[in-house]
Write a structure and sequence with these properties.
Elements: E1 3-5, E2 10-18, H1 25-35, E3 60-62, E4 66-67, E5 70-78, H2 86-93, E6 98-104, H3 110-126, E7 136-141, H4 151-158, E8 165-167, H5 176-210
Helix pairs in contact: 2-3
């Protein structure tokens, strides 16, 4: 649900990177930040524990493009992967406009992937949302591992509905911008469609009012 200011003509979209702990969510956002020119990005804010795991979220405003006369701003967040931070995860996911699920290709993290996916679905439901109602892209990170889980196995288990998916290595930047480009494009497409529906509804109300006899 984007934040839209009709006076300033600005639409702000919240994109969240979810997934198990240490799957590469923070590395994704850092890679995006590093790939953009300074005038295209704000400061990257990272709050970490002493073990260098994300504690709260990373915040990255990506400078606006124009759509339907509105300046668009993307706010990129990561959510902590550890179960102990469920309350924080629920807060960060509130009002999300688009999701990237970052799955870990390390076979040792297979159960963590499944737990993180189930947790994401449950957290969204706690917020009154369903995952299939939100633009979603899967990213299979750490594909450079020599023993990486086969892509077909990841797709079959995590992505049976065949959402857009990318192989990636967040440490090198492979697949990172492609993931974000597809997600942001789908978010903007839905925003455009919603604005068209709203405009049509307003026009219908005006026609209905103007056609009412004045007696």
């Amino acid at each position: 649900m984007p934040t839209v200011n009709d006076e300033t003509k600005e639409a702000q979209f919240k994109l969240v990177f979810s997934g198990p702990a240490l799957s590469g969510k923070t590395s994704n956002v850092a890679a995006v930040h590093g790939a953009l020119d300074e005038e295209q990005r704000g400061d990257l804010i990272s709050l970490n524990t002493s073990s260098d795991r994300t504690l709260f979220f990373d915040y990255l405003p990506v400078n606006p493009v124009l759509i339907e006369g509105y300046q668009t701003k993307f706010l990129l967040y990561t959510v902590p992967g550890q179960v102990v931070y469920n309350a924080t995860r629920e807060l960060v996911l509130r009002g999300v406009d688009g999701l990237v699920f970052v799955a870990d290709s390390d076979p040792a993290r297979w159960d963590a992937n499944l737990e993180a996916w189930e947790n994401l679905v449950g957290t969204l439901r706690n917020n009154g949302r369903e995952v299939d109602g939100i633009p979603l892209v899967f990213q299979y990170n750490k594909r450079d591992l020599p023993n990486a889980v086969p892509l077909a196995q990841l797709e079959e288990t995590l992505n049976p509905n065949r959402y857009p998916a990318f192989e990636a290595s967040a440490q090198t930047g492979q697949g990172v911008l492609e993931t974000l480009e597809v997600l942001s494009g789908e978010v903007l497409r839905r925003f455009h469609e919603q604005r068209q529906l709203e405009a049509a509804a307003r026009a219908s109300r005006v026609r209905s009012t103007s056609g009412t006899p004045a007696w």
